[in-house]
Design a protein that fits this description.
Among the domains are: 125 residues, Uridine Diphospho-n-acetylenolpyruvylglucosamine Reductase, domain 2; 186 residues, Vanillyl-alcohol Oxidase, Chain A, domain 3, CATH 3.40.462. The strands form five sheets. The protein has a seven-stranded antiparallel sheet with strand order 15-12-14-13-17-18-16. Strands 5-6-10-8-9 form a five-stranded antiparallel sheet. It is 29% helix and 20% strand. It comes from Miscanthus lutarioriparius.
Length: 533
C-alpha cells in the first residue's frame, strides 16, 4: 500500500507524554555564523532545491516548522541553540544537495524524522555558535507494503503509526516489531534499535531490517551493497545520524494471529505490588515468547500491561500456572486484531486504527518538559530494595519507572550481530522519567530526582559498563569532545561503552570508512577511529 511517493529503489496515560514545544533566540555567535554562510549555503541550494523547501530564521514559517516536531519543550527556550536553516526535502536529490552544499559552506546537518530524541539533538545544539541546518524528513514518509513477500519499504520520515497503519491495511495477519508510540519517527527509532511489545517474539526493529538507502558525506546515494557490510551493520542500532542520512529502510514483516489479547492490570502497594513486581522479574523474561508483560511503576501503583499473540482462552492457563500472583482473570482480557491493539495500548479505549496517522500529539503534552534515562538489569532486585523503591516513588516530585522484559528472541541474537548489545542475560530494561509543567519552572527539582534515583539504583543494575539504551539518550552519560575538528574516540568511550559495550570500537571503524572527517556530528555521535586520540 503506497502512502506517498517512495524513496525505495525499485530493485535494489502516561505514554502520550513521551511523544511532546515553545520559542528561541539565536545567539550572537550563531548570527555571525549565519552571515558568513548564508550566501554560500543558500546559493548552492538554490541550484537544486526549490526555495519553498528551504527556511531561514527570518522566514515566517521557520518557527512553526521548528516547533512542529519538538516533543520536549525544555529544548525550545530563549537559550536554545537552534538551526540557521531548515530544509524539507521531497526527494533523495534534495538530501544529496543539502549535504554537499553544507560541506562546501561549513554548515553541518542534523536529521529529524519524528523529533523524539530525548535530548533534542535532531534539532538543537549544545554548542553556541554552531552553524547547522535541520533536514526535516517529514515529507519523505512513504510506506510501500508487499504483503505477498511480507516485506515493506518505509521512508525515515514516516512515523511508526504510519508504518503500522499501512501494514494493517495490507494484511491483518502481518505486523512489525517496533515501539509503542505512534508519532515516533522511523528513522531515529530504527537506527537506535527499536523495541516494543513484539520484542520477545521477534526481537528489535533492526533485527528485521534487510536493506537501507543512505546519503553519505560525499552526497552519494548508497544501498546495502554499495555502503558496505560494516556501515550497514552500524546504522542498524548505532545511530544512523553518525554515518549519513538514512532515507529509507526495507524490512521483513512478521506473522501475527488473527486474534491477540491485551490487558492492563493495576496493583497498588496495599494490594501487594512490591511482592508482585519482585516475582515479575523472574517470570516475565521466561514466559512463552508470545507473551509480553511490562510494568509501569508510578507513585504506589504498578500497572502490568501486556500483549499476547493469541486468544484469552489460551492466555488464561499460562497466567494461572506461571504468574498467579497477578490474580489475572477473564474480565481483564480484551481480544482484538494486532493492528487494533497498537492504538488501544497507547491511546486507550475509544481509539481507532486511523488515529495512527496522526503525526502530532495532544496540545496538553506541549506544556510538560521531561527528563529520562535508562538501565539494564541482569540480576533480580531483592524485595527489600523494591520496598525502598516504592517509598521513593511516593515522594513529592517523584518520577516513574517503566520495566520492559527481555528474554526469548531478543536474547537469542549475538551481542555483536548488531550494534545493540543488550541481549543474552538481560532480564529487563528500566526507563526512568519525570515530568514538570513548563509554566511552573525549569524542571530542576524533577531532573535532580531522576539523577538521584539513578545514583541510588547503581548497586542493583548492570555494571562495567553500566548499560544504557541509545534511544533513551542521556547527555548526563557523557558528551563528545572535539579535538582538531574531529570528535575524540577516547572521550566518546565514556558514553559509547554504556550504549554499545564492545561494539563501540567497530562503530568507530565504520565511521572512519564512511565519514572520516566527522561531518555528521552531534554531542553523542560516533567518532571516527582512524587518526584519532
Amino acid at each position: 500500500m503506497a502512502m506517498a511517493k517512495s524513496l525505495a529503489p525499485p530493485v535494489v496515560l502516561i505514554f502520550a507524554l513521551f511523544c511532546s514545544y515553545a520559542a528561541s533566540i539565536a545567539s550572537s555567535a550563531q548570527a555571525a555564523a549565519a552571515s558568513s554562510s548564508d550566501d554560500g549555503f543558500l546559493q548552492c541550494l538554490s541550484a537544486s532545491i526549490p526555495s519553498q523547501l528551504v527556511f531561514t530564521q527570518s522566514s515566517p514559517s521557520f518557527t512553526p516548522l521548528l516547533k512542529s516536531s519538538i516533543r520536549n519543550p525544555k529544548f525550545f527556550t530563549a537559550s536554545t541553540v537552534r538551526p540557521l536553516y531548515i530544509v524539507t526535502p521531497t526527494n533523495a536529490s534534495h538530501v544529496q544537495a543539502a549535504v554537499v552544499c553544507g560541506r562546501r559552506s561549513g554548515v553541518r546537518v542534523r536529521v529529524r524524522s519524528g523529533g523524539h530524541d530525548y535530548e533534542g539533538l535532531s534539532y538543537r545544539s549544545e554548542r553556541p555558535g554552531e552553524a547547522f541546518a535541520v533536514l526535516d524528513l517529514s515529507n519523505l514518509r512513504a510506506v510501500r507494503v508487499d504483503a505477498r513477500a511480507a516485506t515493506a519499504w518505509v521512508d525515515s520520515g514516516a512515523t511508526l503509526g504510519e508504518l503500522y497503519y499501512a501494514v494493517g491495511k495490507a494484511s491483518n495477519l502481518l505486523g512489525f516489531p517496533a515501539g509503542l508510540c505512534p508519532t515516533v519517527g522511523v528513522g531515529g527509532h530504527f537506527s537506535g534499535g527499536g523495541f516494543g511489545m513484539l520484542l520477545r517474539k521477534y526481537g528489535l526493529a533492526i533485527d528485521s531490517v534487510v536493506d537501507a538507502v543512505l546519503v553519505d558525506a560525499k552526497g552519494r546515494l548508497l544501498n546495502r551493497n554499495t555502503m558496505g557490510s560494516d556501515v550497514f551493520w552500524a546504522i542498524r542500532g548505532g545511530g544512523g545520524e553518525s554515518f549519513g542520512v538514512v532515507l529509507s529502510w526495507q524490512v521483513k514483516l512478521v506473522p501475527v494471529p488473527a486474534t491477540v489479547t491485551v490487558f492492563n492490570v493495576p496493583v497498588s502497594a496495599s494490594q501487594g505490588a512490591v511482592d508482585v513486581v519482585t516475582k515479575w522479574q523472574q517470570v516475565a523474561p521466561a514466559l512463552p515468547d508470545d507473551l509480553f508483560i511490562r510494568v509501569v511503576v508510578q507513585q504506589q501503583t504498578a500497572s502490568f500491561q501486556s500483549l499476547f499473540l493469541g486468544t484469552c482462552d489460551a492466555l488464561l492457563p499460562v497466567m494461572s500456572s506461571r504468574f498467579p500472583e497477578l490474580r489475572f482473570n477473564r474480565t481483564s482480557c480484551k481480544e482484538m486484531t494486532w493492528i487494533q491493539s497498537v492504538p488501544y495500548i497507547y491511546l486507550g479505549s475509544g481509539s481507532t486504527v486511523e488515529d495512527l496517522l496522526n503525526r502530532t500529539t495532544a496540545a496538553s503534552v506541549f506544556s510538560s518538559g521531561y527528563k529520562a534515562t535508562s538501565d539494564y538489569v541482569r540480576q533480580a532486585i531483592p524485595r527489600d530494595v523494591w520496598a525502598n523503591i516504592f517509598s521513593k516513588l511516593a515522594q513529592p516530585n517523584a518520577g516513574l519507572m517503566i520495566l520492559d522484559p527481555y528474554g526469548a528472541q531478543i536474547g537469542a541474537v549475538p551481542e555483536s550481530a548488531t550494534p545493540f548489545p543488550h541481549r543474552a542475560g538481560v532480564l529487563y530494561n528500566i526507563q526512568y522519567m519525570n515530568f514538570w509543567p513548563m509554566a511552573g519552572g525549569d524542571g530542576a527539582v524533577q531532573t535532580k530526582w531522576v539523577r538521584d534515583f539513578y545514583a541510588f539504583m547503581a548497586p542493583y543494575v548492570s555494571s562495567n559498563p553500566r548499560e544504557a539504551y541509545f534511544n533513551y539518550r542521556d547527555l548526563d552519560l557523557g558528551e563528545n569532545v572535539v579535538v582538531g575538528n574531529v570528535s575524540s574516540y577516547q572521550a566518546g568511550m565514556v558514553w559509547g561503552h554504556k550504549y554499545f559495550k564492545d561494539n563501540y570500537q567497530r562503530l568507530a571503524m565504520a565511521k572512519s570508512q564512511i565519514d572520516p572527517d566527522d561531518y555528521f556530528r552531534n554531542e553523542q555521535s560516533i567518532p571516527p577511529l582512524a587518526n584519532n586520540k
